[in-house]
Design brief:
Length: 394
């Protein structure tokens, strides 16, 4: 019966740029009384790989360390996947989707942050070659880091880099115990090795290396084999359910608790309405897109508008197509606001929604001086918990 051994290899060393990781690993193994044999796998914490590479960055100036980390994460991101007040989930340039771009601020010099390794697969391959030369053994290497997982609590270690290991075992076409053909089974072997190694250490143990012996996983894969192609990513656009969730949301998303209006959310809502994505209204020259103006009414919120401290007005001429265009702008802005936790509902024209003057103020987007949102005169208003969107037809 095969047996898997997991051996932690602690070291008192504090890794610095330029350090010899192979030498540190051999010293740790000798101190633990183990040597390396063909078929072994060594899991290496990405933190020491980054430290040896000098992969650090200065923390940006910000109100606190959390805001600074978010700013740096945005700079390191290839794209932002999800944004909440407590974490920025991004896709890194490596292709990893993770919280705050994998930035680490623990156990680093003040004012600095540790970034992910430049090339985790390359780092794993280099360490594997060095072990073959200096220890005479054909050893697999996995560079690991701690990631969260969607819809599950807690974190686990995953593979950022891999060499000498079958990182992804494709079992499609083989059969199960009942003889049924497997159609989708692909085993994330390198991730499983990383998670197994993490069972043998704690964050404060000083154990950057873990030896796994007895796993029959030798192969030529890399951790990039584990990255899903964008064409298979069903969450990148979300499909119709994402739009439905925003349109029919019964209330604000749970994390929206700040009673103060964040001006940046308003600006993002306006940005979402602009640009060529509008297309052209059918049957006529589209002319200029609707212009938008943001007015701060926090000192005296108008009665009937939910105590709204901010008004966003969209303006166009009186033609039907262009009025629809302005309505599209307001709806796009509403969806962005919903995504930021602002509950939205349409209200009928007239009634208790008053005309709201929009004088030119400091927070101005567009060039619409002197217009008014006159709902009673035939415009349409959108009341949100904290925001009113409206436009006139004049």
């Amino acid at each position: 019966m095969p047996r898997l051994e997991i051996v932690p290899l602690p070291t008192p060393a504090r890794v610095a740029p330029g350090d010899d990781l192979t030498g540190l690993l051999l010293e740790a193994a000798a101190a633990a009384g183990v040597g390396f044999v063909d078929g072994d796998v060594v899991c290496v914490a990405s933190k020491i790989v980054s430290k040896a590479e000098g992969a650090t960055a200065a923390m940006p100036e910000a109100a606190d360390v959390h805001a600074a980390r978010r700013t740096l994460a945005a700079e390191q991101a290839a794209r932002v996947v999800a944004e909440t007040p407590w974490v920025l989930v991004v896709e890194t340039r490596h292709g990893f989707v993770c919280a705050n771009a994998g930035i680490d601020t623990s156990n680093v010099a003040g004012g600095e942050a540790l970034l992910l390794p430049e090339d985790p697969d390359g780092a794993a391959a280099a360490l594997r070659r060095a072990l073959r030369e200096r220890a005479g053994a054909d050893v697999g290497v996995v560079v690991t880091d701690t990631f969260g997982r969607p819809w599950r609590m807690g974190q686990t270690d995953v593979a950022l880099g891999s060499a000498g290991v079958e990182a992804l075992r494709d079992e499609r076409g083989s059969t199960d115990l009942e003889g049924r053909t497997l159609e989708v089974t692909m085993v994330a072997v390198a991730d499983e090795l990383a998670a197994a190694a993490d069972l043998a250490r704690r964050k404060a143990d000083g154990t950057p290396f873990v030896l796994l012996r007895g796993a029959d996983v030798a192969g030529d894969g890399t951790a990039r084999d584990l990255l899903r192609d964008a064409s298979e990513d069903v969450f990148r656009t979300g499909g119709p359910t994402t739009v439905e969730a925003a349109v029919f949301a019964p209330g604000p998303v749970p994390w929206h608790t700040d009673p103060d209006w964040d001006p940046s959310v308003t600006e993002r809502a306006i940005v979402a309405t602009a640009g060529p994505a509008f297309g052209e209204p059918d049957g006529e020259d589209p002319g200029a897109p609707p212009t938008a103006q943001v007015t701060d009414l926090s000192d005296a919120p108008p009665v009937g508008c939910g105590g709204a401290p901010v008004v966003i007005g969209f303006f166009t001429d009186g033609s039907a197509n262009r009025l629809v265009w302005a309505g599209t702008a307001a709806e796009r802005a509403r969806l962005v606001l919903e995504a930021h936790g602002v509950q939205a509902r349409w209200v009928a024209a007239g009634g208790d929604v008053p005309a709201i003057p929009l004088p030119p103020l400091g927070r101005l987007v567009g060039t619409t001086d002197g217009h008014e949102v006159d709902v009673d005169a035939g415009g349409v208003g959108l009341t949100l918990a904290g925001v009113v969107l409206g436009w006139d037809a004049d």
